[in-house]
Amino acid sequence: MAQSSKNRSKNAGAVIVVAVVVIILAVTFIFAFGGDGGTLSHIREDILGEGSHNGTALELIDSSTLPDATTPVQETDAVGDTLITLSDSGIEINGKGALAEGSYLKIVSGGTYTLSGKLSNGRIAVRAQGEDVVLILNGVDVTCKNSAPLYINKAASVTLLLNGKTVNTFTDGTSYDYSLEYGDAVEEEPDACVFSKADLIIRGTGSLVVNANYNSGIIGKDTLQILNTTVSVTAKNNGVNGKDSLKVQNSTLSVNAGGDALRSTQEKDPALGWAEFSDSNITLVSGEDAVQTETAISVDNCSMSLTAGANGANGAPSETSQKGLKRNQGGITVNSGTLIINTADDALHAAGDIYLNGGELSVATGDDAVHSDADIYVSGGKIEIPDCHEGLEGALISISGGEVYIVADDDGINAAGGNDSSSDDFGGMFGSDGSYLAITGGYLYINSVGDGIDSNGDIYMSGGTLVISGPVSDGDGAIDYAGDFHIDGGLLYAAGAAGMAQAPDNMTSNVISVTFDEPLEAGTYICVSGGDEQFVFVTEKRTQNFIFSSPELQTGAEYTVSYGGKYSGESENGVCSGGKYSGGTELATFTLSEGLNSYGRIGLGGSLGGRGFGENGRFGGMQGEGHQNPFGRGERPQADMPEPPEMPDGAPMP
C-alpha cells in the first residue's frame, strides 16, 4: 500500500512523522489482525468471509460465442510441376527435383511439387540450398517413428500449400535418431515434427494437423507465416515457434502444448522476435505461456481463447511461467478483436509498454491481469477482469478511453514502478517513486479486496468515470497514493474502509468525503442531493468512507448527505440512475466550499486540506482521531494543477 500524509513537510520533522507511521501501522495490524504471523492474504480471507466480490457479477466470455474473425478466400486448386505419390510400398515420382529411397523422400531442387498419399513410417526432407520450394500438399499423412516427418534442412524459402479442402497430417514418435541423414546430434536438430531452417509459409484452404510426440510441433528457425489456412497442433513441448518472427493472418489456428503454445524467440536482433496476429481464430491451451515473444506482440481483429496452466486461473501456483501474452524485451499492442484469457500467471505481461486500443478482453488470472515493467495505455475497447490478484500494474498507467471492469483479490490498479518486486504492501510509504496513474477519459469500475487504486507516486484525473467498491479492511483504502491526487474533472465514486482512507488533495474540482460513524452494510444507499439533483450510490460491500466528485457539484450551493432509505430506479456497479431517492437518514446539510469538503473521522490515510461540514466535520490525523480544519472554514491551500506527462501513441510493429 502506498501510504502518505497529505500535509507532508520537507524538513527533518518528516523523518519523525514517517517513524510514527511505521509504529502505528505495526500496532494497527497487530491489534486488528492478531499476532499469529499470518500473511496479509490470509488475514483478508479471515475477515472477508462475507465475500469480497459481492455486487458485480463478471465472468469469462463463453469461448463458444467467439465470432469468426476470418474472411473466406477462393479455394486453392494448384498442381505442381512434379507429382509425388507416397506409399509404404514405394514412393512414385513423376518429374524432376526429387529422390526416393524406400519410404524416404528428398526434395533436392527448387520448384513446385504436388504430394499425396501416406507413409506409416517415413519422412520427407528438403535440401535445396538457396532455392525456393513449394510443396502442394494434396492429402498427405506421414508418420515418422524416429525423426521429423518433414525436415526442411536447406532452402531459401519453403511454402506448404494446403490444397483444396484436403487434410494433411504429420506425426512423429517419442524419440529421434540423429544419425539419420541431415541429423545433428550436437544441435539436436531436427527437434520438431515439422522443422524448417528456412523461411516457412503455410497457406491454402486445406488444413494441416501436426501431432508432436517427441518435442515441439512446428519450428521455423527463420520467419514463419500462417496465411489463409487452418492449422492444428498437439505438442509434448512447445507448439509453434517462428524464431525470427511469427505471423498469423486470416487463419484458424489451434494449439495444445505442454510448453509454450506460440513463440518467437530471436533475442539478438531487436527487429526480430515478434508475433503478429490479424483476422484470425486462435485457440491455445498451454502448460506454460500461451504466447511468448522477445520484442513485440500485436493483435488486430482476432478471436482468441488462451488458457495457460493446467486449470488456468484456478490452477495451483507454479514456478513455471504460465502467462497469456508475454513479451520479454518489449511491449504488447491490442487494437481490436475478442480475447478470452484464462491463466495461472499474468494474463498480459511485458517488459515494455502495453497498449490496449480496442477490442474486447475477458480475463481471469491467478496473478495480474495486465502487468508492464514500463507503462500501460488504455484508450479504447472493453476490458472485463472477473478474477485477478491485481488488475493493472505498471510504472505509468494511462486510461483515456474504453471501459474497464476489475474484480481483484488485492489492488485494482497499482502504479508502482512496474516490476513485480516493487509492488509490496508498503511500496511508496517513504515518498513518491515517480509512478503515476492518469485518468482522462473512459469508464473504470473496480471491486477490490485491497486498495481500489494505488499509486506509489501521483494520481491525475481530468475526465472519465471512476467507480470503486473498495476494501472492507482498515488496512487498505479505496484510494491510496504516495504523491498527490490531482483532480480537475471526471466523475468519482469511491467507497471503502475508513482506516487508510485518502481523498484527492490537489484539485480544481469539488470533492465530498464522508466517513460514517459506523460502517454501512452492503445494499445501503448513500445520497448527495442539492437543488433538483440527486447523486445516489448503493454500497456493494461494508462501507465506512465514501468519496464523491462531479463537475455538477457547485461551489456555494447547499447539499445534503443522507444514507439508508430506498431508491426507485436501477443501479449499475453501485451507481444509481433513473429513479428517486427517499426515506433515508439525513447525515448533514452544508454549503459546498471550493475543493475538498469532509465529514467524519479519517484514519491513517488522512484527508486534510478541505472544509469540514456537519457536527462531526473533522480531519484525519496520525491516530485517525480527526483534527479541526487547519486552513479555516471554507479555505484550502491553493496549488496549480500540473499537467500529466504526455501520452505517446500506439507502439508500431518492427
Q: Percent of residues in helical segments?
A: under 10%
How many helical elements? 2
The structure class reads mainly beta
How much strand? over 45%
* Sheet with the most strands, sense and barrel status: 24 strands, parallel, barrel
Question: pLDDT under 50 segments (min length 5)?
Answer: 1-55, 421-430, 615-642, 650-654
Condensed summary:
The chain has two helices and 55 strands.
Please provide a written account of the structure.
- The longest helix is centred in the first third of the chain and has 21 residues.
- The protein is 4% helix and 45% strand.
- Among the domains are: 268 residues, no CATH class; 178 residues, no CATH class.
- With 654 residues, it is mainly beta.
- The strands form four sheets. The protein has a 24-stranded parallel barrel. It has a four-stranded antiparallel β-sheet with strand order 46-45-48-53, with no helix packed on it.
- The N terminus and C terminus are likely disordered.
